Amino acid sequence: xxxxxxxxxxxxxxxxxxxxxxxxxxxxxxxxxxxxxxxxxxxxxxxxxxxxxxxxxxxxxxxxxxxxxxxxxxxxxxxxxxxxxxxxxxxxxxxxxxxxxxxxxxxxxxxxxxxxxxxxxxxxxxxxxxxxxxxxxxxxxxxxxxxxxxxxxxxxxxxxxxxxxxxxxxxxxxxxxxxxxxxxxxxxxxxxxxxxxxxxxxxxxxxxxxxxxxxxxxxxxxxxxxxxxxxxxxxxxxxxxxxxxxxxxxxxxxxxxxxxxxxxxxxxxxxxxxxxxxxxxxxxxxxxxxxxxxxxxxxxxxxxxxxxxxxxxxxxxxxxxxxxxxxxxxxxxxxxxxxxxxxxxxxxx
Length: 349
Ligand code: MRU
Known about the structure:
It is a single chain. The protein is of the alpha/beta class. It has two domains: 5-137, translation initiation factor eif-2b, domain 1 (Four Helix Bundle (Hemerythrin (Met), subunit A)); 143-343, Rossmann fold (3-Layer(aba) Sandwich), CATH 3.40.50. The protein is built from eleven helices and 16 strands. The strands form four sheets. A seven-stranded mixed β-sheet has the order 6-5-4-7-10-15-16. The model has no long low-confidence stretch (mean pLDDT 96). 5-S-methyl-1-O-phosphono-5-thio-D-ribulose binds next to helix 2 and strand 9.
């Protein structure tokens, strides 16, 4: 299994997702600002992976501070990470975890040395990474029973090992079914404009030997209508308390098409993606990215010069289109707020 992100003796190492699938190269960040750049330019992407990168980046920033400046500058490092990508709540969740650990260390040991706090922050970031991989494996165990031998599964964007600490959410469920010996086939939406499906999901499927076929985004509806899709599984960037789901742009259209064609539509995401402070999907901030990502295709201009484009990176799927949400705590069905409470999800108890 590839290492999406790791901590290596005081540096953050990540696979450069911009270069995939043609080149497998890694970048090493020794300053927290380099981690911020990596999040902004999509060297690392995917909601849980962005959260892990922020946690490690904060640990790195703290490590590089002179001891006496730690208390003063820690929060401005956290704030800098919170200004990167607005939609995935895992980012803010991870920042909050790092802040809580920081505060706990100072509260529990008066006169604690800066070195001990820095060590605790590194530990916390590594714990977030480990917990994420464990949660993904649990999601796989719960979710694989939704997949039958012979099923064709449609997925959008990349919710795989590359988007997480490892194993993946939507692709984790698919992986688990494949590992169990189920004969499955995956339809991979290419996912314009940045082609996370064609570049990243296809790469992961190929590496694992999971039978898969690439389709363009606009083909999905026709494939569903022709009875060629048994279920859809996608990841999520933020799930509101009522079960509305923000995910990569195009997810909403897939969900509506799935409902119209009576194809089950599943979302796989860790509990850390559920935002109890956001009541409905209308409150989820949607990241707007640069026009050039739409106006160009792999660096080549595809529209007349001077033309403009619109580029929201995510959309919101209302809960009524979602058959179930697969989490590490189990499979949750509507009404989702009740389901989140019953599953003992953090903050919903
Ligand atoms: O813009 P990206 O590539 O970060 O968007 C990623 C997605 O939309 C994923 O589906 C989502 O983050 C879930 S990843 C487990």
